[in-house]
């Protein structure tokens, strides 16, 4: 059974190795096939890793001949194994969608380069999640940023180039802050391994308390920029709305979560609960999370572009995650981790279905999406599941998140946050539900859908919708089994406080 401990390393290495083969690939089909097989293998490895952790407990894996703190190690617990499994499931579904649907927004010559970047991006996010070395995490987060910028500009349009530049500029600012935080923490601990940093900080904290607080602030703001924490989200709407369907889905569903997971590890593995309580960082994260929940939804209401509306919704949804972290309790962290799963599944589902709707109607305007139920019942049905989860319809995972965040807020003595959660949910309804209602009940002008009517569903049409249906089924399953998932996630955080 010991060979199971090497699986996390292969989850990172296999996509990198696959990406190296992409420049040698001469045709589009081969690039897609390699990426699809790679993501499926990594999904299987992540599932085996999760079952190993559940059965045998958390473990560490040394990458090389040197043990920590000299060498780099991977740390795999319940939280890490669950997150990697979800990320690889979403990655597999998104790649399957891009394989089953034509890539009209990029030339065939760019397809191998696109999948090279996508594999690098996937490997980097998993690396951030699994590594126990703070500088190694920094390297992975930078690689993921560069890969994401490449995926954004693959359409080679002016708005994509501008969006990628904005993303790169803001990300560089965040990177500088994180790097300074690492420099400060290394100067007083002499370590880059997260566990060893924590042990040294417990010895020198009282002597270097101001340096520790400065470092904590630098990490919070730097990672907050990369994770689209309000008000540092300004790069997100353009980057998500101008990209290809697959890029929007994977950056929103997976890319935003890597920095958040790193923030959780920095808070509770590097600094620890005691130092956090001596600072006001958690209160600040709580306030910014609550503000993001509301303001992200307010901005979404005023959008005419349906893809931009879904992009601004991500700002609000990330607010829920930061709110849970800011509560500073096991229940809050558990609700936050559960919403990472929820958002990964539902937001990828929303971006893929919206992309299909845009291609069929040949317009981004929300007003032109009426009467979709007649021509695209499957697409609108899948979109509706994502919407109902976002607004908080019971049984679906979005409702479970909001319920648990509300309970965690009350337990933490911050019951007033329940009002913010309710207000955010009402705002979600204002911009999401009209699209669904008009799609099913409004009689719009006749549209010449590019791909024909979806009413007579044949095998080919089901094949193109299969990845979205898979994500929708997974979202419903997560909602139904939420009790067990929350129980498992609670175990992951019980020793952090």
From TrEMBL:
<feature type="transmembrane region" description="Helical">
    <location>
        <begin position="281"/>
        <end position="302"/>
    </location>
</feature>
<dbReference type="Pfam" id="PF00361">
    <property type="entry name" value="Proton_antipo_M"/>
</dbReference>
<feature type="transmembrane region" description="Helical">
    <location>
        <begin position="37"/>
        <end position="58"/>
    </location>
</feature>
<feature type="transmembrane region" description="Helical">
    <location>
        <begin position="78"/>
        <end position="100"/>
    </location>
</feature>
<feature type="transmembrane region" description="Helical">
    <location>
        <begin position="112"/>
        <end position="131"/>
    </location>
</feature>
<keyword id="KW-0812">Transmembrane</keyword>
<dbReference type="InterPro" id="IPR003918">
    <property type="entry name" value="NADH_UbQ_OxRdtase"/>
</dbReference>
<keyword id="KW-1003">Cell membrane</keyword>
<dbReference type="GO" id="GO:0042773">
    <property type="term" value="P:ATP synthesis coupled electron transport"/>
</dbReference>
<feature type="transmembrane region" description="Helical">
    <location>
        <begin position="309"/>
        <end position="331"/>
    </location>
</feature>
<feature type="transmembrane region" description="Helical">
    <location>
        <begin position="167"/>
        <end position="189"/>
    </location>
</feature>
<feature type="transmembrane region" description="Helical">
    <location>
        <begin position="378"/>
        <end position="396"/>
    </location>
</feature>
<feature type="domain" description="NADH:quinone oxidoreductase/Mrp antiporter transmembrane">
    <location>
        <begin position="132"/>
        <end position="426"/>
    </location>
</feature>
<feature type="transmembrane region" description="Helical">
    <location>
        <begin position="416"/>
        <end position="441"/>
    </location>
</feature>
<feature type="transmembrane region" description="Helical">
    <location>
        <begin position="248"/>
        <end position="275"/>
    </location>
</feature>
<feature type="transmembrane region" description="Helical">
    <location>
        <begin position="337"/>
        <end position="358"/>
    </location>
</feature>
<feature type="transmembrane region" description="Helical">
    <location>
        <begin position="137"/>
        <end position="155"/>
    </location>
</feature>
<dbReference type="InterPro" id="IPR001750">
    <property type="entry name" value="ND/Mrp_TM"/>
</dbReference>
<dbReference type="GO" id="GO:0005886">
    <property type="term" value="C:plasma membrane"/>
</dbReference>
<dbReference type="GO" id="GO:0016491">
    <property type="term" value="F:oxidoreductase activity"/>
</dbReference>
<feature type="transmembrane region" description="Helical">
    <location>
        <begin position="211"/>
        <end position="236"/>
    </location>
</feature>
<feature type="transmembrane region" description="Helical">
    <location>
        <begin position="6"/>
        <end position="25"/>
    </location>
</feature>
<dbReference type="InterPro" id="IPR050586">
    <property type="entry name" value="CPA3_Na-H_Antiporter_D"/>
</dbReference>
<keyword id="KW-1133">Transmembrane helix</keyword>
<dbReference type="GO" id="GO:0008137">
    <property type="term" value="F:NADH dehydrogenase (ubiquinone) activity"/>
</dbReference>
<keyword id="KW-0560">Oxidoreductase</keyword>
<feature type="transmembrane region" description="Helical">
    <location>
        <begin position="462"/>
        <end position="481"/>
    </location>
</feature>
<comment type="similarity">
    <text>Belongs to the CPA3 antiporters (TC 2.A.63) subunit D family.</text>
</comment>
<keyword id="KW-0472">Membrane</keyword>
<protein>
    <submittedName>
        <fullName>NADH-quinone oxidoreductase subunit N</fullName>
        <ecNumber>1.6.99.5</ecNumber>
    </submittedName>
</protein>
């Amino acid at each position: 059974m010991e060979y199971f401990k090497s699986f996390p390393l292969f989850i990172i290495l296999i996509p990198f190795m696959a990406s190296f083969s992409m420049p040698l690939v001469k045709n589009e089909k081969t690039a897609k096939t390699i990426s699809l097989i790679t993501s499926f293998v990594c999904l299987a490895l992540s599932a085996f890793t999760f079952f190993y952790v559940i059965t045998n407990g958390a473990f560490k894996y040394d990458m090389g001949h040197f043990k920590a703190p000299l060498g780099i190690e991977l740390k795999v617990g319940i939280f890490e194994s669950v997150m990697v499994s979800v990320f690889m499931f979403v990655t597999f579904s998104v790649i399957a969608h891009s394989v089953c649907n034509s890539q009209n927004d990029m030339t065939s010559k760019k397809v191998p380069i696109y999948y090279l970047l996508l594999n690098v991006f996937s490997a980097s996010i998993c690396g951030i999640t699994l590594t126990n070395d703070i500088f190694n995490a920094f390297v992975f987060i930078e690689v993921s940023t560069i890969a994401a910028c490449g995926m954004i500009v693959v359409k080679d349009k002016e708005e994509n180039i501008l969006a990628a530049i904005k993303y790169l500029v803001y990300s560089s600012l965040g990177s500088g802050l994180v790097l300074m935080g690492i420099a400060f923490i290394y100067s007083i601990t002499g370590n880059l391994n997260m566990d060893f940093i924590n042990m040294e900080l417990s010895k020198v904290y009282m002597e270097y308390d101001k340096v520790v607080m400065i470092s904590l602030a630098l990490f919070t703001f730097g990672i907050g920029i990369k994770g689209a924490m309000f008000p540092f989200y300004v790069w997100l709407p353009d980057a998500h709305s101008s990209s290809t369907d697959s890029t929007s889905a994977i950056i929103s569903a997976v890319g935003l979560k890597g920095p958040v997971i790193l923030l959780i590890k920095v808070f509770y593995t590097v600094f620890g609960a005691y130092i956090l309580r001596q600072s006001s960082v958690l209160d600040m994260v709580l306030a910014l999370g609550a503000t993001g929940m509301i303001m992200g939804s307010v901005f979404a209401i005023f959008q005419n572009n349906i893809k931009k509306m879904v992009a601004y919704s991500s700002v609000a949804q990330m607010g829920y995650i930061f709110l849970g972290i800011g509560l500073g309790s096991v229940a809050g962290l558990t609700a936050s981790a559960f919403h990472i799963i929820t958002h990964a599944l539902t937001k990828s589902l929303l971006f893929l279905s919206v992309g299909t709707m845009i291609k069929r109607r040949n317009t981004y305007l929300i007003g032109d999406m009426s009467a979709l139920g007649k021509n695209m019942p499957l697409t609108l049905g899948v979109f509706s599941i994502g919407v109902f989860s976002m607004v908080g319809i019971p049984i679906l995972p979005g409702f479970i998140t909001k319920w648990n965040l509300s309970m965690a807020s009350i337990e933490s003595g911050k019951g007033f946050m329940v009002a913010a959660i309710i207000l955010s949910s009402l705002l979600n309804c204002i911009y999401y539900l009209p699209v669904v209602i008009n799609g099913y009940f409004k009689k719009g002008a006749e549209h010449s859908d590019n791909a024909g009517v979806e009413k007579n569903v044949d095998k080919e049409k089901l094949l193109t919708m299969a990845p979205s249906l898979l994500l929708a089924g997974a979202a419903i399953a997560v909602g139904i089994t939420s009790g067990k998932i929350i129980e498992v996630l609670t175990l992951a955080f019980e020793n952090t406080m």
